[in-house]
Amino acid sequence: MRRLSSGGWRLSLARSPLCWAGTQGRFPITDPTGGAAENQHVIRFPRQSSRELGQNEAFFYLVEDGEDKRIKFHDYAAIYDRPGLYEQLFYDRLRCTSPQVVVSRLVEAVRHAGEMVEPLRVLDLGAGNGIVADEMNRHGVARLVGLDIIQRAREAALRDRPSGYDEYLVADMTAPDAATSKALDQWRLDALTCVAALGFDDIPAAAFIAAMDKIAADGWLAFNIKTDFLQGADKGGFAALVKTMLDRDLVELHLLERYRHRLSIDGEWLEYFVLVARKRGALSADIRERFA
Ligand SMILES: C[S@@+](CC[C@H](N)C(=O)[O-])C[C@H]1O[C@@H](n2cnc3c(N)ncnc32)[C@H](O)[C@@H]1O
Fold first, then answer.
1. 62 and 191 belong to one structural domain
2. Whole domain around residue 85: which residue ranges?
């Protein structure tokens, strides 16, 4: 890995071909769209362009009981409450690729390092209704624990993918309660995934640090982030956190790739980075204070 003079990062890891290790995950899925293929919900997009709205302000109309209900993309509880709506909106209509991309790149990096994916004990931070579990379970990881800040995400995950996670915890990772902290310790986790959940009023740097603390030394980290957030527009402090960890050799970068996360409602691709790294040292008190 070399730091570019522009301040960007170039990946030096040789890319190996993607390798799907069969579908003998813990719980094979029969319908990768989670039922979205049926298009059971009536979704309509507004007249306005998404350029007039922030990504966290984007909304759609759901036609229900003869009414157009305006629902924000970030009103996760309203979306999770309706079976299949999350999948239909983000995966069917907006062609989100991120769970598949992040999980496949983690698998690729682990194998490239000469290790196996199957013994991994993974924490899926910001797990939502469990789409990442579908992807992860294709590879048959040893343990998979989901965590989200909202109870309705847990309820939706248990409803839609009852066997997706070995345990699904509800907590705000910026300040996990004692029971959550103890449970996470007991799972002896060695990998962290965080998909489509960093930035945009979702998971702040402090929560990511707290989750990292629950991952073993030398554990794997795999997440995605909007390209702007790693480059300049550093709301949430995430770029600074990632750069600090790299500068101080607290993480070892294994893979950094720019890819198409999903379409905007105007049909334009939103570009994200997927980053796979390995913990190499404990975060010092000054870093914790800076991102608290
Ligand atoms: C866009 S969803 C992504 C869900 C899932 N990872 C996926 O790829 O489909 C973001 C999730 O992050 C959760 N979240 C936001 N802030 C959080 C926090 N501080 N701690 C844990 N989860 C959080 C939200 O409740 C939401 O379910």
1. no
2. 36-93
Give the pairing type, strands 251-263 and 269-279. Answer: antiparallel
**pTM of the prediction?**
0.87
Closest-CA residue, ligand 1 atom 15, reads 202
Radius of gyration of the chain (CA): 19
Q: Is the CB of 202 inside a 6 Å radius of any atom of ligand 1?
A: yes
Among the three residues 93, 120, 142, which one is the final residue of a domain in this structure? 93
Centre of ligand 1 to C-alpha 5, Å, is: 34
The reply to whether ligand 1 has any atom less than 6 angstroms from the CB of 174 is: yes
Question: Count of domains in the chain?
Answer: 2
Contact between 118 and 162 (Cβ < 8 Å)? no
Residue 174 sits in a domain of what CATH number?
Answer: 3.40.50.150
**Ranges under pLDDT 50 in the chain:** 1-37
| Predicted pLDDT of residue 228 | 80
d(CA 162, CA 157) in angstroms, rounded, equals 7
Contact 124, 224 (CB under 8 A): no
Within a domain: 20: no
Q: Indicate whether 24 belongs to any domain.
A: no
Select from 256, 279, 270 the least CA-distant residue to 209. 279
Backbone angles phi, psi at 26, to 5 degrees: -55, -40
Q: Is the CB of 203 under 6 A from ligand 1?
A: yes
